[in-house]
Structure formats: structure tokens, C-alpha cells
Amino acid sequence: MKRKARGFTLLEVIIALTIVGIIAAGMLPALASLSRGSLNSELAYATPFVTQSALNDVQSSNVYKENFGLTPATAFSSNGENLSVKTTTVISNAPYSLSTIISGVGKPTVVGYNSSQPGDGSGGGSGGDNPPILTPIYVSASLTLLATPLITPTVTATAIDVQYVPNKQNNCTDDHGVWRNYVLDDYDEVADDISRTGTLLTITSSQDKFINTTVVIGPMSTPTSIHVSYSKISNSPSFIDVEWYIREPEKNLCNLVSLSSFGWNILRRGETKDIKGTDSPKNIVLEPKTGWSGRFKPNYVKLVFVSKLSSKDGYINVTIPSQSKTTTVTTYDPIFKTITASPGDDWVGWDYLTFTVGDNTVVTIELNTETSAVALGPFEKGTHTITLKPFRLPKEPLNITLLASPKTSTLPASVSDVDIFYIIKVVNENP
Amino acid sequence: MNPKGLALVTVMGFILILSLLMVPLALGITQFTSSTNVVANKIGMAEARNSAVELVRYYIATSTTACTSEPISGLHEGKLAQGSLTPTISCTSSIPAFNGYAYRYWDFYVTYKPTNAASVCFTGSAVEYLPVDYTTSTVVYFTHVEDKDAEDEPHCPR
Fold first, then answer.
1. Looking at the partner chain, which of A20, A51, A97 has a beta carbon nearest the beta carbon of B11?
2. DSSP characters for A243-292?
């Protein structure tokens, strides 16, 4: 049998909808809870962003503040110098704190940089009561380390002896070993003061034969007497003939002591002294009386003795001016001095060093601390300024060693007016 | 089939469908909450990185130690709300000048220890620009900063 189709009655539908409505009403609290959870999630998500915006003074929407009470609070803490910590806290269902560190030094100058930029901390933006970061004032101070000139010490050299060099020691090949020649050899060429202590030259007799002896003295510039003594000369005629020659400075000893007078200017010709024999020594003084001129100094003088002694055992002693000059040569040795500069509590950094270098002076400087060393120089005459900042010397006692050396050893060297400048920091004076 | 039973099944099915529709919404909210922590950590690390740069800038600009390539450790930590920063800097080379500007080159390592996450090492290089007088301040330029795992970088302070 075919069943007749039929739908729901109105009553059935109403009952079903009522049941569905009742069940749906039971879900409403759950939906409300879900909505609150969604809002809390939204606020928790937004809180870090709000905090970061406030921390960096970035102007953001006030929606969260006005509608949900997300109000940032900012606080500063500082180490008292150029470092501060800025902390922003936002209270919400998920409180969030965020900090950033701000350095007051070392920042580059940026075009468009202003006080409200993050990191400036000078109160811009919404920070409200942000305390300003105090910028310290750097002031230069100086310390005089050496006011009195440091002068190189004087060293008086001992006199350089002038030596008589027997010709045979000159290794001259053309003297044949017979010429008893003496050369006053002054290596310093300033032998002006020749005393008369005497160097004895003995000319022994060759009995009635001529004896030629050459004595070269030099360099010398003052009239010098040659003492001649003789003894045991027979009554036969005996004589000494002396010729004086003078010559410009000559260092070739062999040229000087040869008998040849070539190249020499005769100063006094043939001063003949007749001598007679006696057992007791008698003296003859040969003095260069004429022609001695200062324009020749320092010069060499050659005395040529031509003598003839009659006795076999006679002799002639010629006393040559001996014993050299007493020239005093003053020299100056390099000198160094170490000066210590100690940084004070307010010291920030060494700034620069100034000093004055005198004439004839070369100065080198070493800067030493416990952990660093710097060598500077050389510096010559003038006032010098050395900037110390690039060396970044640490806050330790600074030893400054000055080494002053004379360019010419016979003149003094000096360095003076050594001043060091350093930077001190005046804190909290320019808020 | 009993018509009343059919109606009941229909209503139950309708409720089931509604319930299933609520699941992704609930899951979405849960996931949203957990991602909030990630965002907070990321923001905290971003500010920590900025702070590390500033901290290093401060220590370089105020350094009075000679450039010896030896790491300068023992510097004061930077205390942040989101963690702490432990810096180490080392001057790798310097260009001194008598009359002009001088430069020093620095490497730095800053360990960031967040309160609720693993440590991160911020490392990089900086150039310090040293004017010869004090009328102009020392300026520190950072050439690069990168994040590394603090455990993988031996130079990072522990």
C-alpha cells in the first residue's frame, strides 16, 4: 500500500526550533568567553608594540590607550656619566617591560637629528618626565713639567798631547835612516801653545865632517826658541848653521822631513853659530827673530842644522820645543731626562704636549705608561706641539723621556718649556 | 521510522555542525596567544641589539686603553628589562696621526641573555673616529652587527 507522504506539522517545527534556540542560548557564555580571549590575545599581541613605540618615542595610535588603557610608563636610570637605561612598561593583561641603552658619547652627527630622536633622552616624544642626559664639559688643563731649560752637560776634554815623532818611526823610505828628523805632529792642528820642556836631539860628532840634520816642527804659530847646547868640542873650529824654513800645513811627514827645501819658504837663512869646545855644556838659543808671521799659522818649521864638530866625541844637543799644547776642547754629551705626569681623578685624556727645542739640538721623545709606549721625533729648533689624543694613552702615570742631543758636540743643546695639556671633565654643569 | 526520532537526529546533527564550526575559531585564538610570546621576544631582542650597539659605542668612546688587540672584558653588564648584556670589545688596529684624524678598529661581542629564551651573541665591527682635539667628540661607526648563537661563538662572554 502506497504510503501517503506528509511533512512536519507546524507544532513539530516550532518545538524543534525552540529546542535549538535553548541549546544555542547555552552556548552564548562560551561565545562570550571566546570573545574575551580574542580581545586578550589582541592586547597581549599589541602590548610589546605599544611598549616599543613608547620606548622609542614613536607617536602611535591612541586606540589602545583610550579604549583599553594601555598606558606606557617610562623610567630612566643612569650611571652618572654618559650611559643611561630607558625602560618602558605597559600594564595590560600581559604586562610588558622593555629597556634600551642610550650612550651619550660616540654618536655620529646625523642630518636631521633632533632632540626627539630615540636615544637622545632629552625629553622629546611622549616620554613625559624623561630626565635629560647631562653632557659633560671638557676643559683643558695644563701641567708644567719642565720650565728650566734642560741643557746638555759640559764635558771638558783632556788636552790632546802633541807628539814628537822620530822620523825613523815615520816609515819614510827616502831618509836612508840617517836623518834624525823630528816632527811635531799635532793631529788636531791647533797646537798654539808649545812649551819648552824640550825634547833632546843629540847630534853626535862625525869629526870634521859635515853633519846635516833636519828637524821639522809643526804645526806651530808662535815664535819658538830652539835651545842648542854643546859639549866636548875641541878647539878646532866648530859651528852650527841653522836655516829656518816655513811651510803651509803638510800632512805628508816624509815630505816634511826630507833635507830638500823644495816647496818651503825660507824664513831665515843661515844663522851660523861658532862654538868652541868645553866640557861643560853651554847653551845657544836660536830664536826666530824675523819673518815670523801669524799668517802662516799653523805652519811647519824646518830647521836644517849643518854642523861640523872637530872633536871625535863631541856632540850637540838640540832641545826641541816639546810637550804639546794644552788646548781645552769643550764638548757636550747628549742628555736625557724623564718627567712623570700623573693623571688626576678628573682626568679624561692627555691632550697635547708642547716643548721648545733650542739651537743645535735634536730631541727625541718617548712616552711610556705601564701598558703602552710611543716614540716620537726627532724634533729640531722651534716650539713643537704633539697631539697625544690619537695615541689613546691610558689613565696611568705618563713618563716622558726627553733625549736632547747636540748636533755639533762643541755646542750645547737644550730643551725647555715642557708643558702637557690634558682634558678634565666637568660633570653636570650644563644640563 | 519514527518521525520524532528523525527530528531529534536532525537537531543533534545541526548542533554537531555548529560545534565543529567553533573548533578552528578556538584553535586560532590559542595560536594567536602563543605567537604573542614570539613577537614579544623578537621585539625584546631588537631593542637588546640596539642596546648592545649603544653599550659598545659607550665603551669604545670612553676607552682609555691602548690598542693591543687584547679583548677588554670585565665591562659592566647592561641590565635590561628583557635580559642582560655582557660586552667584550677588542681594538684590532689603530691609525695614529700627529696632525689629523685617527682611527681605531674594534671588534665586539655582546652576549644577550633574555629572561626566558636562549642566549644570543651580537657580534660585529666598529670604527672609532678620533678627532685630534676635544672640540669634536669621538665618533663610533658600526660597520655591521650580526646575531649568532652564543654557544657557537667562542669569543662571546659567557
1. A20
2. EEEEES----HHHHHSS--TTPEEEEEEEEEEE---SS-EEEEE---SS-
